[in-house]
Amino acid sequence: MWAIFPLQDLLALKDKYTTRPAAEETINDPTNPKHYWRFRVHVTLESLLDDKDIQSTIKDLVTSSGRSFPGKKVEGVDESGEKLSKVQLNGKP
């Protein structure tokens, strides 16, 4: 099963990427017949590749969903002593 998320939804996971007003990110203005569809991305691909925090956030969301493959379920305990379950991808947490 595939899950496809719009880029703007993934960028919204981090405050750093949500500082622009929504009007600046509008992809279509239906009142203007000469307006065309486009998404105005305000970050470069290079900066996203360098942002290990957002990569980690997205990876954690995918692995904690239990829907990643190939994966192996791993049991553990967090700082409060509460039992945790997570999935490892290719042997890496």
TrEMBL record:
Compositional bias segments (type: Basic and acidic residues): 72-85
Region (Disordered): 69-93
InterPro entries found in the cross-reference section: GH
Cross-referenced Gene3D superfamilies: Glycosidases
PANTHER family: 4-ALPHA-GLUCANOTRANSFERASE, PTHR32518
Protein name, as recorded: Disproportionating enzyme
